[in-house]
Amino acid sequence: MNFAVITFPGSNCDMDLYHAIKEGINQEVNLVSYKEKSLEGYDGILIPGGFSYGDYLRSGAIASHAPIIDEVIRLANQGKPVLGICNGFQILTEIGLLPGTLTNNRQNRFICEQVGLTVENNKTLFTSKYDFKEKITIPIAHGEGRYYCDSETLHGLNENNQIVFRYDSDVNGSVDRIAGITNKQKNVLGMMPHPERAIENILGSADGLNLFKSMLETQKSEVQ
Amino acid sequence: MSEPTPIQIKEDKIYKTWGLSEAEYSFISEKILGRLPNYTETGLYSVMWSEHCSYKNSKKVLRKLPNDSSRVLAGPGEDAGIIDIGDDQAVVFKAESHNHPSAVEPYQGAATGVGGIIRDIFSMGATPIALLNSLKFGSLDNNQTKHLVKEVVAGIGGYGNCIGIPTIGGEISFEKCYEKNPLVNAMCIGLLDNTQFKHGQASGNNNLIVYVGSTTGRDGIHGATFASDEFSNKKKKQRSAVQVGNPFIEKLLMDACVEIIQEHSDWILGVQDMGAAGLVSSTAEMASKTKSGLMLNLDNVPQREKGMTAYEMMLSESQERMVLCIKPEFEKNVLNFFDEYNLDAVTIGKVTSDKQYKIFHEGKLVVDIPVDSLTDEVPEYDHHGIKPKRISEDREQFDPQIASFKESWLNVLSSPTIASKRYLYETYDSQVKSNTVVRPGSDAGVVRIRGTKKAIASTNDSNSRYVYVDPYIGGQVTVLEAARNIVSTGGIPVGITDCLNYGNPEDPEIFWELDQSVQGIADVCKHLDVPVISGNVSLYNEFNKEAIYPSPMIGMVGLIEDISNITTSAFKKSGDLIYLLGSTGNDFNGSEIQNQLLGRVEGRLNEIDLNAEKKNQEIVLDAIQKHLIKSCHDLSEGGLVAALSESAFDNNLGFNIQTTLTSKQMFSETQSRYLITVDSKNKESIEDLFNDNFECLGFVTNDSTFSIQTADENLDIELSEALDNWKEAIPCLMN
């Protein structure tokens, strides 16, 4: 499987994702600049965390106008897997691939800690290797990670099983303790916690590894 | 408004308001120039000759510090020092204070402190891998201090999180003396391949000087002078001296500089950060190192504001700017390279052979002075020290009257100095880059070096109460505590950077404190063979003539040769045996318990047996390398009481101990001690290693209780009650 990690000026978890793919699941991965216009040949698109364009204006807002974005949207609409983590999640909501928005944490402070999550839907290409309702530990590191959407959208997310990860406790004030959601088609996942920082026990948890393994397994089964 | 003429500067003594003394001014005009310096030239001398840039008051003291070992590749004098860690790799590290700016504008002051220290690291071509910080504030009992804490912590996080370097450790303490003059010291560690090392030098006639990064504005003018003066109620118009940070630009600058040094080393001769005293300091230092001259054309400098004078441009401390010395044939390559990163890069001058520092502005020559006179001819002051009266001769120890063992135990845990700082450090991204093995909260933070078996441990330590009551031994303790923190984590101490924070050195008592404490630091560094490879001096930390405690901060780096040796302070498993390595005496002067009972610290410290200290360090490292140790925690403030509790908290475990020590001695802060847990099957092996120098205190339990039996009483404390006191103290005081 060949992954693209999209880098924007100010991305800072691009190498974390790169290593997660390379060392975690031993697959091909390239850093692709925001200036590019084609993602031809890639089977998975990864949008990393960080502070694209310094988070000026609003997290992810300026990145959503970068040259590469049209291509990301095109591949997403084709059904290719697209994963946005942290700032990547914020960018995905800004470009409309995912509903809702991310705003300041309830505490109004940046929080970096290991948090407990529950896998709410294991029937997606990102979560097939997890058990339904599995408890996992993944770190968060964000100041604007509080997921918000209106009640109609929330209803839709629940109806369509789009809520993939929930926090076990109220870590940042997110609606319905939402930590990660997919689009309706389930090929675009946005999440605030960092699975790419949880692929080795020596760093505190390896619970994020199954997310990348799930993507790989799904792709393999599709090729067959 | 036109600038004062050279005659007016002399007659109105304008130079004095910029910090130059009459003697210094006369020396410049009579001995160096043979004429009166103009407005811009006087400005250049005043910042370059400030304590912050020249160390003119502290140089003599700093020479006491050893700066060499078999691992040192570069010591003080570069942007940061370099230590060999084997396999053709090296670590580069430095700490710097940003005390004065943080007092005036806490968010930006702290943020730009972090930004500045990061530039010192990547200007050497090193990739920053970790940040630490040491913060000192007044007592958390008033809104002003709470505001300072909140903003300083937010500023550090705001910058470090955005740029994407993990903050892996540090310390925060609270003491009345820092109320108006908080201390904000930040440290950065970078990783480097030896061969890539770039000296910050401008050499070779006609090589070009290139300016890269943010535009130059009027912010931070005279920042270095400002940092070399005292605070008082009367000096309120100091806000313009604080700079504003932009971590987004710094991230681009960092990535670009590391790449150009690593990938295109044939293009460039030197790279230097524009830090304190901005353009003048960076370019003059570059030129003086190679005995070259320099010609700059200020019309080419990217400017943020209209109508800036030469004086303003030269002294601006606008952030996120670098200067490079490059070979002229690669000018286009260099400018295009930075353009790809959306960074401004322009050629602003060239290297000359006449050893003069010449600045042109709007077609006129506005500065023409010898380069060396800015950097090498700064007068050095030899101050006379007088021992303060509070420092007595005898070392009789305070005798704490513990009315309630339990209450004192809980009070130690909830004391802001000892209580958990998690509420503050959880706002720092400690994990970005996915290399952090030990996060803040243990004895030292640890980052592994990807692709190797190695890891780097680092800690920031200071204990200004000890230095205040006994500068010499206090200085020793500061280094020893840092070393124990590294050793407890499984690391070999390999180098030190320091921030020496003191009051006005022209006060003989303060100079004595500086001199004595640096002597203490130096003696321990020599004994442990740990060199001081970089650092910073921050003097004049006073408000209305009230000085801070003498506060040397030690930033130590340790090498962990195999990641399997990484050890943390947390108890691991019920049933593990708990050992105290090292003997406990009655050491209560300067201690937490003395401060709690008296509301002050006083009395001399007992002398330290450095051989015993070194021996215990070797024993711990040996035991760790033999994988006999499950957890290891250095004993410091709060003695055994704090160490036992902290080790239990992380994994919600209890303990059951029985000791020959008295209840009082549980609070004693005798040096050279470690709290260690061991699997019971290794009892014999560990006791062989420990020799006779230990006490087996008991064992770890999972019954959520601290059960303590001392020589004089029994005490049970619920884990939850102890934990609440420790964990909730800071959030409670902050909200």
What would you say about this model in short?
The complex is a heterodimer of chains A (224) and B (735). Chain A is of the alpha/beta class. In chain A, 24% of the residues lie in helices and 25% in strands.
Anisotropy-based shape of chain A: globular
Largest sheet of chain B: 7 strands, mixed
* Average pLDDT figure of chain A: 96
Count of distinct structural domains of chain A: 1
Which second-level CATH architecture of chain A applies?
3-Layer(aba) Sandwich
CATH architecture of the domain at 198-378 in chain B: Alpha-Beta Complex
Care to describe what's here?
The complex is a heterodimer of chains A (224) and B (735). Chain A has helices at 14-24, 69-78, 87-94, 151-159, 209-223, and strands at residues 2-7, 28-33, 44-47, 82-85, 101-103, 111-119, 135-142, 146-148, 163-167, 178-182, 188-191. Chain A has 224 residues and is of the alpha/beta class. A nine-stranded mixed β-sheet of chain A has the order 2-1-3-4-11-10-9-6-7, sandwiched between helices. In chain A, strand 3, helix 2 and strand 4 (82-85) form a beta-alpha-beta unit. Among the domains of chain B are: 6-48, no CATH class; 198-378, Alpha-Beta Complex (Phosphoribosyl-aminoimidazole Synthetase, Chain A, domain 2), CATH 3.90.650.10; 567-735, Alpha-Beta Complex (Phosphoribosyl-aminoimidazole Synthetase, Chain A, domain 2), CATH 3.90.650.10. In chain B, strands 8-10-7-11-9-12-13 form a seven-stranded mixed β-sheet. Chain B has a seven-stranded mixed β-sheet with strand order 23-25-22-26-24-27-28. In chain B, helix 8 (106-122) runs parallel beside helix 11 and helix 19 packs parallel to helix 20 (508-528). The chains are: A alpha/beta (224), B alpha+beta (735). The A-B interface holds A 9-10, 12-13, 15-16, 19-20, 49-51, 53-56, 109-113, 139, 141, 143, 194, 196-197, 199-200, 202-204 and B 154, 157-158, 161-164, 246-249, 251-252, 341-342, 426-437, 439, 448, 450, 563.
